[in-house]
Amino acid sequence: MHINLLSLILLSVLSIQLSSLKFLQLSDFHYDVEYNSNGIANQMCHENSSQAPSIPLGQFGDYLCDSPAKLIENAVAAAAKVIANPDVLLWTGDNVPHIEEYNEEYVKNALQFTTSTIQRYFKDVTVLPTLGNHDMTPSNQFGENDKVYEITVELWDKWLTVEEKKLYRYGGYYSRVINNEYFLILNTNLYYTYDKRNFTDPADPAGQFAYTEKILEQAQKNKVAAHIIAHIPPGLYERVPGTKWFTDASNKRFMDILTKYKDTIKLLVFGHHHGDTFHVIRDDKDNPINVAYISPAVTPWYSGLGFGANNPSFRIFDYDEKKAVLNDVLTYNVNLTALNQDQNTLWALEYSHKEAYGMSDLSAASYANLVDGFSKNETLFQKYMLYNTVSTDDSVPNGTIRTGQLCSLNHADYEKYEKCLKGSSALHYSSWFIVTLFVLILNF
Length: 444
Description:
The chain is α/β, with parallel strands linked by helices. The protein has one domain (26-443). It has helices at residues 2-19, 69-82, 104-121, 147-155, 162-171, 208-222, 248-260, 336-341, 353-357, 364-376, 378-388, 399-410, 414-422, 431-443; strands spanning 20-26, 88-91, 127-129, 174-178, 181-185, 226-229, 265-274, 277-282, 288-296, 313-320, 325-333, 348-352. Strands 3-2-1-10-11-12 form a six-stranded mixed β-sheet. A six-stranded mixed β-sheet has the order 4-5-6-7-9-8. Helix 4 (147-155) runs antiparallel to helix 5.
């Protein structure tokens, strides 16, 4: 009897392991070829012949600057040590640094370096890449049939199929069926408020909404799961209240799609923020139906917005294929200061969503309850703030900033977010807020 019980336990454990898939996410490298240890920290760590640095900068980077080659190499190598053969590698864009002027050749060179680095460490892994808003020249200006799409198709020849390349050349998006589940790799930069390109159909840039619904209809008909992977998420930036990424019309349509296919879409993965956060997705009746995971960056860059930098990081999603649910979300990081002092400093697990927040499951309802806990439990909210900055700062914001954080976590829909803000007496727009938004537009 004891032997039979032990056998059942072992079979149960084996079944869980066999149904568990691991998705590795790498995001926001922002590779800066001009990073120089003799550079000026407040000038993106670029060398200035007329101004000497006060102290030498770290070989792996600086919190005021974007990533040197050594940091990117170190990050990808560390990810390969933690998980050598992920079932899928989700690469969510932004490879060009936060500089103002660059051309297509610059974009190509940056992407060539990051692409070759990933290929070297993950030779036989399925990689699903997409572009970030900086991976275009001028930055943010994505259109239809852009030359940068052709450049990346050539670089990603090994990763994309013939059919995927055809679609990608037009709008920078595509889809893939893996293990009988649909992966939609979207170009949400098309919806960015700062994208001023003209489209054949302004209501549906590059026909991506129609394509998304077409694929989701197929997944729904086949009764299988679908996942959406992109760079810019819907909703608002948690650190600066009122900051929208998508145009109003695009955000509404995106939210409508998420609601319409709420039983089919199982995973939403994004980057762009550099910080570590999430958005609870709600339907028209305000019921939580999904969670948009917004993963932290490899670049440690301090944006100049007054909210600090972050330690370099990457993320692993532990997904139960059989149940079509997440088992856990694991974030790994390295302390940049320690890495600069000792190049042998190891990357380590920063936290597990389940363990850190004491969650029994990772359902949308559980995340809604978690956000409610943030508003009531200062210690819990402080823990979130520490992870939001990738373990660089655990200070808890007050007033407008605090309200913005909580409303962003709870509402990706613009109207609901605005109601959340108006419901707080802490919201007071000021000249400081306007200036901050102006800086955000220039830098993000």
